[in-house]
């Protein structure tokens, strides 16, 4: 018999993933100089990396919003996490600009599914009196994740520039980080299978 997660654990898991969402976005920008050196990318092409992500994100967000009102939200969230994790791991393995842009589009698609549907899922899980606090906690992960991404990327970049690491070290370090995060997400996805249905009651 499947055990349903409580609203607390639903919020805990989704907020944690939202934090990693923004850590992922900003850590890449923080290691951009090292990335450009490793892949021989100029400033113009480096700017296209963010553009590729945004294209995947903005083009598919309305589609996921439409699907979120008509199909199971928990499975759309799970699918988004899978695509997002796959894209981030492949980003760490990219050996050229072309494939890197493709992988960042993939990350954007996965994050669009997650970010578009999760707030609505939280709203359905919590009763009106507690909904605002739940969404506040969820969105606090945005600045925290962004700050941690910049800090982590800065540490990796400084280590690389100080000469204590061989060329490509920061890229392999980032890939290792994303692999570990992907494993954590798979565990969260397994837990999410026990979440309530796509339209749970708005009470505890």
Provide structural commentary.
With about 200 residues, the chain is mainly α. It has a single domain (about 20-190), classed as Up-down Bundle (Growth Hormone, Chain: A), CATH 1.20.1250.20. Helices cover about 80% and strands about 0% of the residues. It is built from 7 helices and no strands. The longest helix has about 35 residues, at about 130-160. Mean pLDDT is about 80; it is low at about 165-170 and about 195-204.
Concise account of the structure shown:
This protein is mostly helical and 204 residues long. The protein contains seven helices and no strands.
How many DSSP-defined strands? 0
Which structural class should the secondary elements be placed in?
mainly alpha
The average pLDDT is 81
Per CATH, what is the topology?
Answer: Growth Hormone, Chain: A
Please tally the helical runs, counting DSSP H or I stretches of 4 or more residues: 7
What does the largest sheet look like?
none
Known CATH architecture:
Up-down Bundle
Query: What value does the Rg take, in angstroms?
Result: 18 Å
Helix content: over 70%
Would you identify the regions where 5 or more consecutive residues have pLDDT less than 50? 164-171, 197-204
Number of domains: 1
CATH homologous superfamily classification: MFS general substrate transporter like domains
Beta-strand fraction estimate: under 5%
CATH class placement: Mainly Alpha
Distance between the termini: 20 Å
Shape: globular
The topology string of helices and strands comes to HHHHHHH
């Amino acid at each position: 018999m499947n055990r349903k997660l409580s609203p607390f654990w639903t919020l805990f898991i989704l907020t944690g993933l939202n934090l990693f969402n923004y850590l992922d976005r900003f850590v890449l920008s923080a290691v951009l100089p090292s990335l450009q050196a490793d892949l021989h990318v100029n400033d113009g092409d480096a700017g296209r990396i963010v553009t590729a992500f945004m294209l995947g994100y903005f083009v598919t967000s309305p589609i996921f919003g439409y699907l979120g009102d008509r199909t199971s939200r928990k499975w759309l969230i799970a699918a988004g996490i899978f695509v997002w994790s796959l894209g981030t791991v492949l980003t760490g393995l990219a050996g050229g600009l072309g494939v890197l842009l493709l992988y960042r589009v993939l990350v954007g698609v996965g994050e669009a599914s997650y970010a578009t549907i999760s707030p609505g899922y939280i709203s359905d899980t919590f009763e009106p009196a507690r909904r605002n606090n739940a969404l506040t906690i969820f969105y606090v992960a945005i600045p925290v994740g962004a700050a941690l991404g910049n800090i982590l990327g800065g540490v990796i970049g400084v280590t690389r520039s100080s000469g204590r690491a061989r060329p490509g070290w920061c890229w392999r370090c980032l890939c290792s980080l994303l692999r570990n995060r992907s494993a954590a997400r798979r565990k969260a996805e397994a837990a999410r299978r026990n979440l309530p249905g796509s339209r749970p009651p708005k009470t505890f």
